[in-house]
Amino acid sequence: MIKLQNVEKVYRTSSIETLALNNINLDVKKGEFVSIMGPSGCGKSTLLNIIGLLDAPSKGIIEIDGRKVERFNDKEIAPLRNKMLGFIFQSFHLINDLSVIDNVEIPLLYRSTNAKQRRELAEEALEKVGLANRMKHFPKQLSGGQKQRVAIARAIVGKPEIILADEPTGNLDSAMGNEIINILQSLNEDGATIVMVTHDDAMAKRTHRLIRLFDGTQVL
Amino acid sequence: MLRHLFKLIWNKKGAHSLLIIEIWASFMVLFGVLSLIVFNVSNYVEPIGFEYQNVWNVDLASNQDTVEVGGKLERILQRIRSYQNVESASRMSSNTPFSANQMNNSITYKKTSALADHYNTDTDFSKTIDLPMLTGRWYNETDLVSKFIPIVINKKLQEKLFLDENPLGKVIRVDEKVSYKVVGTVDKFKAKGEFMSDNPAMFQMIQKDDSWNSNILIKTKPGTDANFEARLVKDIATMLPGWGIEVSYLTESRKNRHNLTLVPVSIFLIISGFLLTNVALGLFGILNLSIARRKNEIGLRRAMGATEGKVTGQFLGEIWVLATLSMVVGLVFSVQFPLLNVFDIASSIYVTAMIAAVIIIFLIVTLCAWYPSRQASRIHPAVALHEE
Ligand SMILES: Nc1ncnc2c1ncn2[C@@H]1O[C@H](COP(=O)(O)OP(=O)(O)OP(=O)(O)O)[C@@H](O)[C@H]1O
Ligand SMILES: [Mg+2]
């Protein structure tokens, strides 16, 4: 499902050059639930961004669902992000000026679905994360766990095959965190391929496979 | 997508109200300026209706001379007509073409009243300034025996007073002693020049022995120069010792008259130009800032599959919706001018000004929003999401 070959990422600023990822090779099968761990600054987010086509690698090959992504051309990768990938971020990234349901509908705005379909799909996704009763609320009126569940609903509303989560429980207490992992696990059981960055060993243990990074290099 | 935009805007209405007021205010300023421009331009393209080339205006002042002034004026007119260089000459009241003087009267026919510019002229006036007849004839010597004062009216006055009736031969009673009789109509007489609107006007025949109307318009033959002017002034001075004599060319008076219109309009234009530039810069600043503050949202939307174009389009769409709202309010205000007929200007002028103002505002907001939107949409999604 996800294949990385000899991927390298170098951040260049005028004065410094950071090798964030060094020769990464990765093969995530369809339906796998993989976690990425490693100390702060080792390149986990960078790796996830590259898998999610949010950032271009400096070197190497990326394959998503058998498709080689070579040219990072906006018009070509935008539909790929829209249809194949769902993102969950540590800091939720909800739009505060939009209600819960409008936030969840966002990915559907960038494909051809009409307003009625959007509403139905968004309601369905919110039901899955147990927030059907908070649709008209605004993000500011929600707890952290609820916000993250909205973000999950938004990630799954377009029924992507791959879900990428960057420390989805990082801003939550353990009870809330557990709830989130439960949701991710059930999504995985429904067939989604999931890659999750985490700092929590207990969370990582509940996934199929663990990838460890150290200083931009894969150590496990 | 439009619904999404409306929601986004509605939920931020507090932050947007200032922007709406700003766009509304610029719309009103623009509407005012454009009304003025459209008014002047639409006047300008209408012909003035007469010929001023080679026409001179001799302004005579009898000063202390009170003896037989009417007879002297008549003799001077005859003398002027006798020159080789003169094609035609005609006496007129002091509101000569392009002069600053103005005379108007309310005139009533069958309970319909109209305010008309009032000119006293003689039988040769239409010939002297090539004022063509529309219907009827210009007054002549035979009219002197009539008990009515012959008048010629322009089309505007005809429309206001007589509507669809034929005005020729109609008698207009002014008071017990004076009544006018319409003997002819002319099309236009924009005495103040191109920028004047086509006002209702009437011409009244100067009576024998009249001593008031002491301007003489002279149509000279082409090529007549200042030598003739000098000779003319000298001859008149000999005939009328102690009188004031002033000769001016209508071509010159017309230029001066135009400046009187163009200078204030230009100043007004420059000031509003500055004002609009300021508004545009302010708008650019506000949009630049507000879009920069929304980097997270941009990153997020890109991550969810929005192309750069969609992001740019969203921001442009938002400002268009805001501009439309502002201008709907602006139109409610501006439409009052034609509805209440505030300045007695044709509605079409206001409508043209409104349409032009709407287009210009859309252009300005698009220009102001396009650059920051484009810039913002181009940031890498990973970078945009990284910035908190
Ligand atoms: N935009 C950037 N420009 C320059 N350097 C960057 C940029 N983003 C990340 N880096 C560097 O790349 C390295 C990896 O960063 P990354 O964010 O992937 O770490 P991480 O493993 O996610 O850390 P954490 O656990 O704290 O989130 C770090 O050394 C960081 O300083
Ligand atoms: Mg990170």
Give the CATH topology of chain A: Rossmann fold
Q: Low-confidence segments of chain B, ≥5 residues, pLDDT <50?
A: none
* Poorly predicted parts of chain A: none
Main sheet overview of chain A: 6 strands, mixed
- Tell me the CATH architecture of chain A: 3-Layer(aba) Sandwich
Helix content of chain B: 40-55%
Q: What class would the helix/strand composition of chain B place it in?
A: alpha+beta
Strand order of the largest sheet of chain A: 6-7-8-3-9-10
Tell me the strand percentage band of chain B.
15-25%
Named once each, the bound ligands are: adenosine-5'-triphosphate, magnesium ion
Helix proportion range of chain A: 25-40%
Biggest interface, residues from each chain: A-B, 30 and 25 residues
Query: CATH H-level name of chain A... which superfamily?
Result: P-loop containing nucleotide triphosphate hydrolases
Briefly, what is this?
Chain A is an alpha/beta fold. Chain A contains seven helices and ten strands.
Sum up the structure in keywords.
heterodimer, A: 220 residues, alpha/beta, Rossmann fold, six-stranded mixed sheet, four-stranded antiparallel sheet, 7 helices, 10 strands, 27% strand, B: 388 residues, alpha+beta, 12 helices, binds adenosine-5'-triphosphate
Structure description:
The complex is a heterodimer of chains A (220) and B (388). Chain A has 220 residues and is an alpha/beta fold. Chain A has a single domain, classed as P-loop containing nucleotide triphosphate hydrolases (Rossmann fold, 3-Layer(aba) Sandwich). Chain A has helices at residues 44-51, 74-84, 100-109, 115-128, 144-156, 174-189, 201-205, and strands spanning 2-12, 17-28, 33-37, 59-64, 67-69, 85-88, 162-166, 193-197, 209-214, 217-218. In chain A, the strands form two sheets. A six-stranded mixed β-sheet of chain A has the order 6-7-8-3-9-10, sandwiched between helices. In chain A, helix 3 crosses helix 4. The model of chain A has no long low-confidence stretch (mean pLDDT 92). In chain B, strand 3 (104-109) and strand 4 (112-121) form a beta hairpin. The longest helix of chain B is centred in the last third of the chain and has 43 residues, at 250-292. Chain B contains twelve helices and eleven strands. Chain B has 388 residues and is α+β, with helices and mostly antiparallel strands. In chain B, the strands form two sheets. In chain B, strands 3, 4, 5, 6, 7, 8 and 9 form a seven-stranded mixed β-sheet that branches. Chain B has a four-stranded antiparallel β-sheet with strand order 2-10-1-11. The radius of gyration of chain B is 31 Å and the shape is elongated. Chain B folds into two domains: 2-45 and 256-387, no CATH class; 63-242, no CATH class. Classes of the chains: A alpha/beta (220), B alpha+beta (388). Bound molecules: adenosine-5'-triphosphate and magnesium ion. Residues 44-45, 166 of chain A line the site of magnesium ion.
